[in-house]
Please model this.
Amino acid sequence: MCIRDSFLIAMRALMGVGAALVMPSTLSLVMMAFPPQERAKAIAVWVGFAGAGGSLGPIMGGFLLTHFWWGSVFFVPVVLAVATLIACSVVAPKAREPGRPRLDPAGALLSVIGLSSFLFAIIEGPEKGWTDAVVIGAFAVALLGIGGFVVWERRTATPMLDIKYFGNRRFAAGTVGITLAFLAMFAMFFVLTQYLQYVLGYSPLKAGFAGLPVAVSLIVVSPRSIRLSARIGIKRMVVAGMLTIAIGLTLLSLVGLSTAYLYIALALVVTGCGMAVTTPALSAAIVTALPMHKAGVASAVNDTTRELGGAMGIAIVGGIVTSAYRDQLAPTLAGLPGEAAEQAGKNVGRATRVAEELAAQGGDGTFLDAVRGAFVDGARVGLRVAAVLILLGAVYIARQFPSDDPVPAASAAG
Model:
């Protein structure tokens, strides 16, 4: 790994630290700025725009990559961040948890070790093999790290995350539901972006716009979902939303080598609507399960589950897609030179470049067809696994979430 790559990774890590500081604070401010009867609606609006940001990002990135150099993808958000910083310093209310609780560096370190090792093992499993010593060792470190975190948090006087909170059924079910919902969302975008560019041949900008139905669904449906929650209760709302997400993922798993975009857009709208009715209710359940002076902790847990779910979605579903892709393409790779076969076996992007080089040398295009077919097969498997995980989450929510927990009718006013 060269110095430039190391620097890029380090700066991305620094950006992650910044995001970890910002996102929980935004939801805490929402809790502080609105009266109790309006908080559910405010949280729904927050969820809609926060989720839509993930959909709008590829559009901005695609535009910048099309018209400017690749570094502009990192430069332009700096302007947005500075503008947001100025606005927040002027408008946002000031709030602080009473008592100034002490930090928990040991808990933070154990959680980082455990979760990082877990994700590393899942990502490297398809590459090295699930029985590889490095992968098994990473899983072992993850088990020790997460187990050590739980033990430490139970014993320390100032835990970063009080494990007792998970005894609250609303809090526990909310964290599981948010994790699975964002697992599905990030997995979907991971697969969809590659499918649109490498199978259908979309440009980065066009692929970014192709994901717009999810953003629109989140922005439009999320604020309106609160009224329905007030009528039928959070539990039924979340279960219905997770079933809708599973249907959307299943529809996406049926795409082929030349699927019309209208069908893809329909599947994205279904998935986006499922997210729009699920995540506001779950976020509200998390942040209202704890006392108001613990709003920062609840907000941090809500954001952590979102980020963890997203990372797990890319790692788990990405690993499944890669494994299925390689198995399907293996017979075709056997007929390629060693270096070309190695590159093509890594991922569909590199395989597409190999196919372009072969075509320039007089190839007939059959290898590119094989690459696309292998990726579509892998995408189908990965998306269906994500749908199954969402269905299991719906069953868990149906069993664990308190049935007598509707959103107050006053929250849906306006």
